Amino acid sequence: MKSVLVYCEVENQKVADISLELLSAGKQLAQKLGCPLDAMIFGSKLKDIKSEIAPYGVDKLFVADDSRLEPYRTLPHAAIATTVLKQEDPQIVLFGATSIGRDLAPRLASELNCGLTADCTILDIGDHFVKKEKKEYNDLLYAIRPAFGGSIMANIINWDMHPQMATVREGVMKKEIFDANYSTQVIDVNVEDSVKDEDFVVKIIERHIEESGVNLKEAPIIVAGGYGVGSKENFQHLQDLADLLGGEVGGSRAAVDAGFIDHDRQIGQTGTTVRPKLYIAAGISGAIQHTAGMQDSSLIISINNDPDAPINKLADYVINGDLAVVVPKMIKYYKKNAK
Amino acid sequence: MRPLKIVVLAKQVPDTRHVGPDAMKPDGTVNRGKLSTIFNPDDLHAMELALNIKDRVPGTTVTLLTMGPPKAADIIREGYYRGVDNGVMISDRRFGGADTLATSYTLVKGIQKLAPFDLILGGRQAIDGDTAQVGPQCANKLKIPQVTYVEEILEISENEIIAKRRLEKGVETVSSPFPCLMTVHGSSPVCRSRHAKNVMKYKYARTATELRSADEMLKSLHEKRPYLTIPEWKVEDIEANIEKIGLAGSPTKVKSVENIILTANEAKFLNESDADIELMIKELIEHHTIG
């Protein structure tokens, strides 16, 4: 059966944002293909979960409801997903490029012996002519992703080993309600038929999940720092400016690796993709890995003491100077001039 | 506590984190050939975790396994310098062009030749692709549990290992029986440095391929000290199915590649003077970007 299938993440009866984004992206693909959009969701107490998912235009929703399925563990989720995928034989399967999706999808791709493209930023449908076989393949998934540290965009296809799988980073696709009254058929998956006792050998002993207050994707203004900020203390200047402007603080991978700022505030190819109306880049050189995640910002200010920093090429304002001097001045003159 | 047999998976990668001006072509695209090669950073963390377990559990052996072109023997030498017990290369032109599925198949054939084992460790992901797929794919093919994003090993006992995982929004402590596969997160401790004694002992370690172009002195040294010869496994040595390796075994194919070019913007260039900063702030307020 030709279909697009989305693996949805859920915790405490709340479907993850990334999964809703994927449903929206999946719906567009399904419409191009003229096929159904289906979804699968495995967790605990999912009796009412349909109401969260149906508005995204889901035709069939496969639900596995069992207290042992939450929090997520690899083996039971992989076993149930394998059952659903073998039974449904979808053409395309999408996962979030999250801690969960990046753990589950490769295990499934190996089990089903199919192709998986990681961290896509664009999904599309198209054709491909295979010269060796002298054959045209139609309606393939174009899984487009930055590669090689973000220096290239690669269009990855897979024509001979189905399904075609992809993971997509959070915040890349836009979440859009398709039809608030969409009629979704719920199919209960029998858990016992798929999982064995040994699928539960990995045990969760302790868990600390902070419902992160960080929402970089929605922030209209982002003040981001790189390795050039130099210290956690200097990051405070950026925080002060962000607080004053009603924005959020972010960081490059180098700043995160250096411990200047938390991992959940990382912007770039391996962090969050953002499109604020104002992006202030302080002490960020502009490795493509970083710019891939912020280049669509409406207005970019670069503060850097290196006049040749690559990020300056993207910037609307290039301030050549020390951020420890510049940022406090920005605060001062904002306070003076803002009404 | 019984000693463990650990296999560490490591990859030599182009240093995509440091694309210097010399690696940029005039058109603004990256010249891959000009990038230096390094030990994949996450894999160094995995090796440290293995060596740390070896410190804690006497008698434990650490075997480093890498797949790559002849030059990737650097990875094995680096591993020896930092304290691994054994190193093995999987190297054969026919493995080239492999995506993650074909790579995991090949590595698993190598791991099975090294069996039995208790623990397979690898970095979370490699910086040339950032896919994080090969670890879970190997675990699936070996039919063993996987524990991804490991930051710390909290406890090791006869039958199980307890690890702290670093997730996007928090941490999780899990236990797994042996054997299992773990991928190691970059937030785990950095790898110990080279040990001078090990560098002395292994600096002439070479693969058979490397030895062919070496001088007679090095060749006779290898005859006297067989441990210096790094095993180099070909397709036949690991009994790999030719259909499942390299390009043929790779479902994902690159259809097209578009170079990202940073194009110059019409920017305003300012300095840190009060006048410049105030001018910019006023413009931003005027255009309702802020305020």
| Total individual domains of chain A | 2
Q: What is the rounded Rg of chain B?
A: 23 Å
Which percent bin holds the helix content of chain B?
A: 25-40%
Query: What is the CATH homology-level superfamily of chain B?
Result: HUPs
Low-confidence stretches of chain B: none
Number of helices of chain B: 8
User: How large is the share of residues in beta strands of chain B?
Assistant: 25-35%
Strand content of chain A: 25-35%
Q: What is the annotated CATH architecture of the largest domain in chain A?
A: 3-Layer(aba) Sandwich
Instruction: Please name the CATH topology of chain B.
Output: Rossmann fold
Main β-sheet of chain A: number of strands, strand sense, barrel status? 7 strands, parallel
What's the main sheet of chain B like? 9 strands, mixed
Break the fold down into its secondary structure elements and pairings.
The complex is a heterodimer of chains A (339) and B (291).
Chain A lengths: L3 E5 L1 E2 L2 E2 L1 H17 L3 E7 L6 H4 L6 E6 L8 H15 L3 E5 L4 H12 L3 E5 L1 E9 L4 E13 L4 E6 L6 E5 L16 E4 L2 H4 L8 E7 L11 E5 L6 H14 L2 E4 L1 H5 L20 E5 L5 H4 L7 E6 L12 E4 L2 H15 L2
Chain B lengths: L4 E6 L1 E3 L22 E3 L1 H16 L4 E7 L5 H10 L3 E5 L9 H15 L4 E5 L10 H9 L3 E11 L3 E8 L2 E8 L2 E5 L11 H7 L3 E2 H5 L3 H9 L4 E2 L1 E2 L19 E7 L8 E4 L2 H13 L5
Parallel strand pairs in B: 1-4, 1-6, 4-5, 5-13, 6-10, 7-10, 11-12
Antiparallel strand pairs in B: 2-3, 7-8, 8-9
Task: Describe this structure as you would to a colleague.
The complex is a heterodimer of chains A (339) and B (291). Chain A folds into two domains: 4-200, 3-Layer(aba) Sandwich (Rossmann fold), CATH 3.40.50; 221-337, Rossmann fold (3-Layer(aba) Sandwich). Chain A has 339 residues and is of the alpha/beta class. Chain A is globular and about 65 Å long. In chain A, helix 6 (232-245) runs parallel beside helix 9 (323-337). The model of chain A has no long low-confidence stretch (mean pLDDT 93). In chain A, the strands form four sheets. A seven-stranded parallel sheet of chain A has the order 7-11-6-1-4-5-12, sandwiched between helices. Chain A is 27% helix and 29% strand. Chain A has helices spanning 17-33, 50-53, 74-88, 101-112, 191-194, 232-245, 253-257, 288-291, 323-337; strands at 4-8, 10-11, 14-15, 37-43, 60-65, 92-96, 116-120, 122-130, 135-147, 152-157, 164-168, 185-188, 203-209, 221-225, 248-251, 278-282, 299-304, 317-320. In chain A, strand 9 (135-147) and strand 10 form a beta hairpin. Chain B has 291 residues and is α/β, with parallel strands linked by helices. Chain B has one domain (5-244): Rossmann fold, CATH 3.40.50. Chain B is built from eight helices and 15 strands. In chain B, the strands form three sheets. In chain B, strands 9-8-7-10-6-1-4-5-13 form a nine-stranded mixed sheet, with helices on both faces. In chain B, strand 8 (160-167) and strand 9 (170-177) form a beta hairpin. In chain B, helix 2 packs across helix 5 (196-202) and helix 3 (100-114) crosses helix 4 (134-142). Chain B is globular and about 75 Å long. Chain B starts with a strand and ends in a 5-residue tail after the last helix. The mean pLDDT of chain B is 92. Chains A and B meet through helix 3, helix 4, strand 7, strand 9 and strand 10 of A and helix 3, helix 4, strand 7, strand 8 and strand 9 of B. Strand 18 (317-320) of chain A pairs parallel with strand 15 of chain B.
